[in-house]
């Protein structure tokens, strides 16, 4: 069970399905798609994301002992050394599977893995830079899927949306972890400027995103169903969350709930693209 919890399986599943969404957002109305390459790319994203989560937990052992003592390593469910070997296994498997998708996917996965290591070891403690890197990596998952299609540039649209919402989530999680971060000399934005300032910063991209999600519909990239889903399931929740973040000092529990709501909004956004894209026919090949 500890081996499953340490990889944060929900986050990994989001990465898995985001590859398909990225491909779907960039493919043409009638296209032949290699099912093997799609599955290989999605599985590689799952495994590399799992590796990143393991590395992050190893580096956060002291912080989690204060903020999240129930996490696998500080709780003693798994040792740091065992987690390290597990992470190497996940990375090796992820890079190996990525090569089945294409050489470009393999190179992309190598770059992502390098950034994950750099983030956990050097950039996590920086003000905003670490948040930006994690958010870029989240958006990169969609571009990774877009590389399976002929017009990968179209995947940059949902990738940018993913960047904005994940940047907010990262700031919110930092505000939630202020006590442990300060105790371990981790100087995040909320530690340096205060949790309330962190809340206001986190709200800004959400307000922007609540408007920008309608741009693809206006550009005829996505259909009417997309517009309906994002209006109800994305834009309104984002505005409500932004109001909470701007209007009051949120407790650690409330910030955690907001973070989970934003994760749910991400899933709804994925569904909006899947059901709202005006794509008529796909042909899956081996």
From TrEMBL:
It is a multi-pass membrane protein. CDD domains: PT_UbiA_DGGGPS. One of its GO terms (cellular component) is membrane. It is found in: Membrane. GO terms for molecular function: transferase activity, transferring alkyl or aryl (other than methyl) groups. The keyword Lipid biosynthesis does not apply. Keywords: Membrane, Transmembrane, Transmembrane helix. The chain crosses the membrane at residues 6-27, 34-55, 99-120, 127-144, 201-217, 223-246, 258-276. It comes from the Bacteria. This is Geranylgeranylglycerol-phosphate geranylgeranyltransferase. It comes from Candidatus Raymondbacteria bacterium RIFOXYD12_FULL_49_13. The lineage of its organism: Bacteria, Raymondiibacteriota.
């Amino acid at each position: 069970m500890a081996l499953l919890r340490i990889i944060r399986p929900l986050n990994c599943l989001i990465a898995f399905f985001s590859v398909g969404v990225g491909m779907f957002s960039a493919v043409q109305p009638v296209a032949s798609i290699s099912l093997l390459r799609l599955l290989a790319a999605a599985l590689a994203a799952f495994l590399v994301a799992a590796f990143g989560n393991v590395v992050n937990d190893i580096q956060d052992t002291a912080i989690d002992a204060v903020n999240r003592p129930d996490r696998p390593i500080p709780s003693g469910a798994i040792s740091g050394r065992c987690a390290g070997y597990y992470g190497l296994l996940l990375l090796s498997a992820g890079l190996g599977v990525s090569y089945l998708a294409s050489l470009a996917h393999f190179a992309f996965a190598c770059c992502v893995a390098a950034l994950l290591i750099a983030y956990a070891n050097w950039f996590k403690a920086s003000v905003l830079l670490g948040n930006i890197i994690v958010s870029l990596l989240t958006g990169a998952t969609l571009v990774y899927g877009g590389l399976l299609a002929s017009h990968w540039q179209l995947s940059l649209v949902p990738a940018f949306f993913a960047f904005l919402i994940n940047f907010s989530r990262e700031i919110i999680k930092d505000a939630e972890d202020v006590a442990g971060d300060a105790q371990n000399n981790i100087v995040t934005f909320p530690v340096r400027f205060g949790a309330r300032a962190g809340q206001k910063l986190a709200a800004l991209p959400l307000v922007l995103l609540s408007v920008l999600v309608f741009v693809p519909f206006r550009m005829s990239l996505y259909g009417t169903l997309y517009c309906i889903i994002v209006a109800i399931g994305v834009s309104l929740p984002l505005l409500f969350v932004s109001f909470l973040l701007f209007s009051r000092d949120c407790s650690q529990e409330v910030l955690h709930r907001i973070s989970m709501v934003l994760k749910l909004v991400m899933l709804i956004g994925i569904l909006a693209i899947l059901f709202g894209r005006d794509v008529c026919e796909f042909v899956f090949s081996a």
